[in-house]
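Morning F.,

Quick status update on the modeling queue. The single chain you submitted on Monday has been processed. Sequence for confirmation:
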Amino acid sequence: MKKEHAVIIPVILAGGSGTRLWPLSRECHPKQLLPLVNDKTMLQNTMLRVQALKGFAAPIVVCTEEHRFLVAEQVRAIGGEATIIIEPVGRDTAPAVAVAALEAIRRDEEAVILVLPADHVIGNEGNFAAAVARGTSCAVQGHPVTFGIVPRSPHTGYGYIRKGEVVGGDEPPVFAVDCFVEKPSLEKAGQYLDQGYLWNSGMFLFRAAGFMATLKEFEPLMADCVAQAYAARTQDLDFTRLDSALFSASPANSVDYAVMERARDTVVVPLDCSWSDVGSWEALWEIGEHDGQGNIFIGNVLAEEVTDSYIHAGDSMVAAIGLSNLIIVETKDALLVAAKDRTQEVKTIVKRLMLEKREEVRRHKKVFRPWGSYEGVDCGERFQVKRIIVNPGATLSLQRHFHRAEHWVVVKGTAHITNGDQTIILTENQSTYIPLGAKHRLENPGTIPLEIIEVQTGSYLGEDDIERFEDVYGR
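Structure tokens below.
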């Protein structure tokens, strides 16, 4: 017997690398964890969106090992709560949703899950909430639900949904899904627009048990691998950690291909709102607020006779003269200049950076850690200088290095330092030297951020020259 009121659990998919938004989005700090449209990150905006839905449970967030502490901190910063599940390796969206479905079933066998990517921009949030309410009533009745965006223009970057007959008597109506259509040519996209097709948003609602039943029917190996990985899960601090080997054995596939295109009685709820999956710099320009010349300027930008362009100045002033339809993005270690209509090709630059094993594809100069952050200031042959910020009450691991020595100078705050057999307290303008091979640890016992300058010297200065003995973050 079905319950009168189903438990509804949002599932936020926060994996992915967002390569087409390089150089802001990088492997270690991808687009969903960046503030691209306002002062909140895309993940935080998604969290706030689901917090506004009345009667919904706290969300499940699925993310990667590398991003788990950033995700946890961003959830905490907006006063949110979430169950965070670590995805050991990327296997596309279907296995990630399956893990969340199993967690939802553990809580309530009749749970309904609302699946949302963490990197969508949605306007008209009242329309979004109304569409979710309509979809929920369908999902409770056993219909897998997808949300179709009412298109504003022909677009070749999205898949489409062809509507079938009206289902039920809801107003506005809900439709049976006639078929899903791949990303079209521009000519086809225009025809789809005229024929009332909807954009496939990649947002879904279904009973968790129904999703797993469909997955077992059409992707039995995936369902089995995910179930075993979930059954062997462990708790690591505030994170749920899946069995890596079992999860890695799962085939990779998307929710669309693995389930939605095969499921029976699927319906689509039209969603009339401004929407973007921010798949390129051009898309970010499209959804932003333009000046009188069609420009979006962020940071220290000085422009003369510039039109229809997006210029993002990170740390330096960017001056532009006589430009049109360009994307310019500046960071401390990279500068992107591209024609606006060719920003999808940024991924080819990223592929080259990967092949050349360039650090610019993985991380920014400023790198976030669970205890705070560090930033490269200068480097040369056999030396490197970093600015390190340690959050109040945070502590680095007890560690040692085999190829470098370190000299720490406290700039602000108070440092509790383990240096070999010594334990010392340093304050502003005081310093200590960590010899090569010495066990050491840095802690911030104070109530304000601790800032130090670290000077490394040695034959090898890579981040992998580290042996940890104790670590409160389980690394």
